[in-house]
Structures are given as C-alpha cells and as structure tokens.
Amino acid sequence: QVQLVESGGGLVQAGGSLRLSCAASGSTFSISSMAWYRQAPGKQRELVATITSGGTTNYAYSVKGRFTISRDNAKNTVYLQMNSLQLEDTAVYYCYARSIYNYWGQGTQVTVAS
C-alpha cells in the first residue's frame, strides 16, 4: 500500500506561482513513476506532468515551460512548481503514483484569480 498526501494548494493571482508537494509513505519502494493530474469543474481529469524513478519528465502542452515536476527520492516526495499561473489552471490537483497498483492522493485545490 502507498499513501499520498498533497499540500501547497491555495488562492493565487494570475501570473503568480505555487508549489505543490506530494509526500508518499508506505511501500514507496514499489513506485515506478509519479505524476500530477488535475480536474477542473465540469471537466475530465487530465494529466499535467509525469516523472519516472530515473527523473525523466513529461508535460502536458498547456503547462510546458510554466510548470516543473521534480522528485526527492530520499524524502519520497514529488513537487510541482507552477509559475505564470493562468485562470485556466484552476482545478483540483491530484498526485498519482504508479506501482503494481495505481494510487491517488486526496487532491488539493488551486484557484487562480484575475
């Protein structure tokens, strides 16, 4: 079992920055890749960024150049640095971990105001 706890969400003005954190606990040795997803009201959950255990990253086109995903393996934590936030980035952000099973965090709200 893996438990994921996100933090760092909040209210920010357009153009501002936030950093999300996702702390993993439990059977963290089994995790291969981790990712951030988001779900805006009335929309499907979408992939934002992924990072493998080796550090390879991938981003959705809409956030490329603005968001950075990173991980600290010693702390079993993955981060999402979000810069130049736009109104369209408003969503609940979920941490995801892939191992034998798929694990999700509870989500953290990010609201970007004009």
Describe the protein's topology.
Elements: E1 2-7, E2 10-13, E3 18-26, E4 33-39, E5 46-52, E6 57-59, E7 67-72, E8 77-82, E9 91-98, E10 102-104, E11 108-113
Parallel strand pairs: 2-11
Antiparallel strand pairs: 1-3, 3-8, 4-5, 4-9, 5-6, 7-8, 9-10, 9-11
What does it look like?
- The structure is a single chain.
- This protein has strands at 2-7, 10-13, 18-26, 33-39, 46-52, 57-59, 67-72, 77-82, 91-98, 102-104, 108-113.
- By secondary structure, it is mostly beta strands.
- The model has no long low-confidence stretch (mean pLDDT 96).
- It starts with a strand and ends with a strand.
- Strands 2, 4, 5, 6, 9, 10 and 11 form a seven-stranded mixed beta sheet that branches. A four-stranded antiparallel beta sheet has the order 1-3-8-7, with no helix packed on it.
Keyword list:
mainly beta, 0% helix, 7-stranded mixed sheet, 114 residues, 4-stranded antiparallel sheet, single chain, globular
The ordered string of helix (H) and strand (E) elements is EEEEEEEEEEE
Give me the number of helical elements.
0
Mean pLDDT: 96
Rounded radius of gyration (Å): 13 Å
Show unreliable segments: none
Largest sheet: 7 strands, mixed
Apparent shape: globular
SS content category: mainly beta
Beta-strand residue fraction: over 45%
Helical content class? under 10%
The number of distinct β-strands equals 11
Q: Kindly, what is the distance between the CA atoms of the first and last residues, rounded to a whole number of angstroms?
A: 40 Å
